[in-house]
Automatic annotation (TrEMBL):
It is found in: Membrane. This is Ca2+:H+ antiporter. The chain crosses the membrane at residues 31-50, 62-86, 98-118, 130-151, 163-181, 215-234, 254-274, 286-308, 314-337, 344-361. The lineage of its organism: Bacteria, Bacillati, Actinomycetota, Actinomycetes, Pseudonocardiales. Residues 30-184, 219-361 form the Sodium/calcium exchanger membrane region domain. GO terms for molecular function: potassium:proton antiporter activity; sodium:proton antiporter activity. Keywords: Membrane, Transmembrane, Transmembrane helix.
Amino acid sequence: MSVRWSAWTTVLPVLGVLVLAATWKVDLPTVLVALVAAVLIGTVLAAVHHAEVVAHRVGEPFGSLVLAVAVTVIEVALIVTVMASGGPESASLARDTVFAAVMITTNGIVGISLLVGARRYGVTLFNAEGSGAALATVTTLATLSLVLPTFTTSQPGPEFSPSQLTFAALASLVLYGAFVINQTVRHRDFFLPVDDGGEDGDDENAHAEPPSGRAAKISLGLLMLSLVAVVGLAKVESPAIESAVDAAGFPPSFVGVVIALLVLMPESIAAVRAARRKRLQISLNLGYGSAIASIGLTIPAIALASIWLDGPLILGLGPTHMVLLALTVVVSMLTVVPGRATRLQGSVHLVLMAAFLFLAINP
């Protein structure tokens, strides 16, 4: 597996960054909005390709970790940038974005992966130990960072006091670091695909020679370039998205959901492709790993940025979102514990994802 400089997967990341530079903070006509959207989708596909090249070189679960962390770091930078220039109306941006990411990853990515894998192979197998540890980490991070602020009394409203925010940030970093060590060092085998001794799917890369170090480094650079373009172009498209959301009569907060969906497209496509190749554990690594990275890196970054950001920082979820989060945790536990799943579990998670989207439109 090599990188060819003439390939579309090489051209599109560069094109995406050039288009981003040309359209940043520019009012675009409808035709250019459509062209930017086309470039965005192509860049997402290129990002997935390069993520798979890197994953094949370094092996699992490092490949899933690279994609999840890369997307989240750029997403965090985007959140901080928007909050710094957005004024008081961006006070809940971090909460809305992180919660949307958690629901999209734990219900959307996990649900579609379970359904695709079960439709193709009947029953999908995965490591309950690794997936259970990831789910426990997601649950703890989400509760500490998004639920507790609604009930604390030191600050008025669903906010943390400075000391509470500092504790939440440090706890998030500790949990994220502990999970990464557990995933990549201490218990790496818990996060590797399960071999049931049967059909090995259609993963042509499973038995192929790993790419050279040079090819992997080039793909890593192009992956980073692609992700910068994806997140940036999603931001460029946001005015058009805001106009479409307003025209449809949806709440303004739904814009954050749409942008989160765009930003998480690379992980979503990579997860589905892994499920089709009978590598459901990789899909779960991507889903839960992205949720962990989203909270574990965003909350410390926002806590640090709050030193110079003006205005309140609203982190606490409302009652509807807390119910959805609690239901997601319970359903995810019942899905993960057996270490195997059918179409039913995938369908349940996708219904929860649909409920989140519907209530985001009709709160």
